[in-house]
Amino acid sequence: MRDRIADGKRRLGVMGGTFDPIHHGHLVAASEVAARFDLDEVVFVPTGQPWQKGHRSVSPAEDRYLMTVIATASNPQFSVSRIDIDRGGKTYTIDTLRELRAEYADADLFFITGADALAQILGWRDAGELFSLAHFIGVTRPGHVLADPGLPQGGVSLIEVPALAISSTDCRARVARGDPVWYLVPDGVVRYINKRALYRDPSQPTR
Ligand SMILES: Nc1ncnc2c1ncn2[C@@H]1O[C@H](COP(=O)(O)OP(=O)(O)OP(=O)(O)O)[C@@H](O)[C@H]1O
Ligand SMILES: O=C(O)c1ccc[n+]([C@@H]2O[C@H](COP(=O)([O-])O)[C@@H](O)[C@H]2O)c1
Fold it and tell me: Is-annotated flag, keyword Kinase (predicted)?
């Protein structure tokens, strides 16, 4: 990571997600927020066990981590953190932000969420404390309404990003059907999915 900028606090974006797989919707959202909010860096944080996705199988964390590394490697502003994977247990953003706060004591944190995730945020663990640890940035996502769900005043910014109607769910379904995911996910991620035979069999082992 780059050194703290001399003329002020570092501005650190945090893009949390299950990234099963990471796709261009995630990358465009992070890139757009980085530009609009003058961020020094965006840290992608793949979830360990995403408790709200418990109704479906989730690919092994190492596969999701490696796909995230592959997808972000060419952008010097992007990095990937293992903190949610290495902590073990269910992933809660309150833990993510507490750890990042401790690691980057002098940085301002900006947590990036799509409109669908933002709508659920008041149901996240310790939601009341979340907003003291980071500023939240809600981004538009096709098929979802972007709105402030009632965060403390000044706690959230809502911004429009280029509309990409891509979801990980659709990418997985396409692979299972034998349809292409080229140009929905980065080329290296397509190759990784093929190499590891991910998503071909919906009943394959998980986590
Ligand atoms: N196309 C998109 N445009 C804007 N934001 C997105 C887009 N896809 C995902 N996001 C946001 O990225 C974050 C991580 O998303 P996640 O990894 O769950 O992807 P997903 O496509 O929603 O996955 P799934 O289809 O498996 O639920 C969430 O805040 C989500 O709202
Ligand atoms: O903290 C929580 O209770 C919580 C509940 C659901 C989702 N999140 C976080 O929201 C981000 C997007 O999650 P997901 O499940 O949409 O991939 C990711 O960083 C999750 O850890 C956090």
Answer: no
CATH assignment at residue 52: 3.40.50.620
Confidence of residue 201 (pLDDT cuts 50, 70, 90): confident
Q: What's the pTM?
A: 0.95
DSSP letters of 87-144?
Answer: H-SB--HHHHHHHHHHHTTTPEEEEEEEHHHHHHGGGSTTHHHHHHH-EEEEE--TTS
Ligand nearest to the CA of 59: 1
Question: Of 107, 132, 95, which Cα lies nearest the Cα of 40?
Answer: 107
Give the residue numbers spanning the domain of 25.
9-196
The number of folded domains in the chain is 1
Query: Collapsing DSSP states into helix, strand and coil, what is residue 50?
Result: coil
User: Does the beta carbon of 47 lie inside 6 Å of ligand 2?
Assistant: yes
pLDDT (tens digit per residue) in 46-90: 999 888 776 678 999 999 999 999 999 999 999 999 999 999 899
Distance, in Å, from the CA atom of 83 to the CA atom of 68, rounded to the nearest integer, reads 14
CA of 145 to the centre of ligand 1 (A): 14
- CB count within 10 Å of CB 165 equals 10
